[in-house]
Amino acid sequence: MEITFLNDLKPYKTTWKVEVKVLHSWEQHSICHGGDTLEFILEDKMGVNIHCICKRLFFARVKNLQVGQWSFLENFAVHQATGIYRRTSHIYKMSITEYSIVTNPSLTTCKVLFNDHNKEYNDSEDVLTSSSKRKERDADLNDMNSTSKKLCAKNIKMEKTKED
């Protein structure tokens, strides 16, 4: 599922996936029909904040959300933010549902670009030029793959060290 920024959320679906950091959290006690809630101010990588509400019934779903830690949040409801005292300036607020999933990103993903060796060249291209360009690209790809592998290995080692 594609990661969406908080500014792009709309209330027409509940299958969003966002990467957010918890800036602040608190428990709101209430004697009203809805009962107690756990509330969060979340921030995405663009610096946009949104108010998130979790009813007591779903507290177990958000146990992985911790202040200052980045997490992925999937399958939540988006509602119009109303009222005089709004927690953020965002036009919507989020609600955790029974289908919500919270996961912590444990590994850094590395993007590696691959060269398509099966690409057909135009008839107008010189075959020797095409093969020399291909060799140059392959050499660049090997250098990039080697660097990417080293960075991924370093990140994995760092993650293993953090878990210990």
Automatic annotation (TrEMBL):
Superkingdom classification of source: Eukaryota
Q: Where is this region: Disordered?
A: 125-164
Name the InterPro entries for this protein.
NA-bd_OB-fold, RFA1B/D_OB_1st
Q: Which SUPFAM superfamilies match?
A: Nucleic acid-binding proteins
* Start and end residues of each Replication protein A 70 kDa DNA-binding subunit B/D first OB fold domain: 4-103
Write down what this protein is called.
Answer: Replication protein A 70 kDa DNA-binding subunit B/D first OB fold domain-containing protein
